[in-house]
From TrEMBL:
Substrate binds at S173, R189, L209, R212, E297. The keyword Oxidoreductase applies. Binds 1 zinc ion. Its cofactor is Zn(2+). Keywords: Hydrolase, Metal-binding, Multifunctional enzyme, NADP, Oxidoreductase, Riboflavin biosynthesis, Zinc. Its EC number is 3.5.4.26, 1.1.1.193. This is Riboflavin biosynthesis protein RibD. Gene3D superfamilies: Cytidine Deaminase, domain 2, Dihydrofolate Reductase, subunit A. It comes from [Clostridium] citroniae WAL-19142. The active site is at E57 (proton donor).
């Protein structure tokens, strides 16, 4: 509780911080935070804690220290007005006596999409929209993409040296970046629904692809394995009963598939595209499985395929202050490549984060201009 009167933007800032606490727990639902203020005092606060659980507005109302009649509700996303896994939040707001609702951004979900705002207005509740709107949209970038496209938001992540190498000329890559950068990667493994790699990564490194945060959530592990070459003894397969694991393949033989299923793996049989698993078909299937986001930690070949098929939405490049050299040392993306600078995959909205001695460069994928 506080008795320091703040602006709408400051209260919304608090709601955004609350919303972030649900990271990794609410997918494919949005992150939402709520603060209830009366007479300059915060009398309730809440956030969407987990998928299927109460929404932020109801959490905030449940925490009230006094009656909400005549109070203002600050919420980062338009309140829902339909029955899903929980009752409509608009009902709870109207029953509470709240007289003013300040909303960060409208909900793109067709079941809501302005209907929540209209309903509140029709019941005499003052609604203010667009407070810290850019920040609220950015926080739910994954949700906004998934609700509109029904396919996962894909983040291509890699670590490289300042001369653009992802491993030495002998193929050794542990470790390129330092502890802070690697901890940030684990935060993203907790944040995004799934992690994707190619079978080449499994054969080379035998990784676990799990989240190492003490209170973190393991992402669904997706391995692109056209011919099912993942070893039965790999750590991915041996831990499939404790960490959800999907093998995307073009193999259909029951005797080949059965041992993986018996080990706890899920098998997705998909068509081929250029001799490999059709990634576009894979993304459609994953969307149908409610997997809203993927951290792509693939090798150079898988990275190129995903880019070439227009499936990557953000690029994260961790750059270490090192030089490996070597004309044959691997780089983040190989494949056919583009033929002219104008055909590049252009990036936009760059962000730079310093993590110890390393630098994280993040950009949205703009377009591939076929010049």
């Amino acid at each position: 509780m506080t008795d320091v009167k703040m602006t709408d933007e400051e209260y919304m800032g608090l709601a955004l911080k609350l919303a972030q606490k649900g990271e990794g727990r609410v997918n494919p639902n949005p992150l939402v935070g709520a603060v209830i203020v009366k007479d300059g005092m915060i009398i309730g606060r809440g956030y969407h804690r987990e998928y299927g659980g109460p929404h932020a507005e109801r959490e905030a109302l449940a925490s009230l220290t006094r009656t909400a009649r005549g109070a203002t509700l600050y919420v980062t996303l338009e309140p829902c007005c339909h029955c899903g896994k929980t009752p409509p939040c608009t009902d709870a707001i109207m029953e509470s006596g709240i007289s003013r609702v300040v909303i960060g951004t409208a909900d793109p979900n067709p079941l809501v999409a302005g209907k929540g705002i209209s309903l509140l207005n029709s019941h005499g509740i003052q609604v203010v929209q667009g407070v810290l709107e850019a920040e609220c949209i950015s926080q739910n970038q994954v949700f906004f993409h998934f609700i509109r496209t029904k396919q996962p938001y894909v983040v291509m992540k890699y670590a490289m040296t300042m001369d653009g190498k992802t491993a030495t000329c002998t193929g050794r890559s542990r470790w390129i970046t330092g502890d802070e950068a690697r901890m940030r990667v684990h935060r993203d493994r907790n944040r995004y629904s799934a992690i994707m790699a190619g079978v080449g990564t499994i054969l080379k490194d035998d990784p676990l692809l799990t989240c190492r945060l003490p209170d973190g959530r393991n992402p669904v592990r997706i391995i692109c394995d056209t011919r099912l070459r993942t070893p039965a003894t790999s750590r991915i397969v041996s831990t499939a009963r404790s960490v959800r694991t999907i093998l995307a393949t073009c193999r259909t033989e029951e005797d080949i598939i059965r041992p993986y299923e018996e080990a706890g793996c899920e098998i997705l049989t998909l068509p081929q595209a250029d001799g490999h698993v059709d990634l576009a078909a894979l993304m459609k299937r994953l969307g149908e499985m409610n997997i809203d986001s993927i951290l792509l930690e693939g090798g150079a070949a898988l990275n190129w395929s995903a880019l070439d098929q227009g499936l990557v939405h953000k690029v994260q490049a961790y750059v270490a202050p090192k030089l490996f050299g070597g004309k044959d040392a691997p780089s983040p993306v190989d494949g056919k490549g583009v033929g002219a600078p104008g055909q590049a995959f252009f990036l936009k909205q760059p962000r730079i984060t310093v993590l110890g001695d390393d630098i994280l460069l993040e950009s949205e994928v703009s377009a591939c201009l076929q010049a």
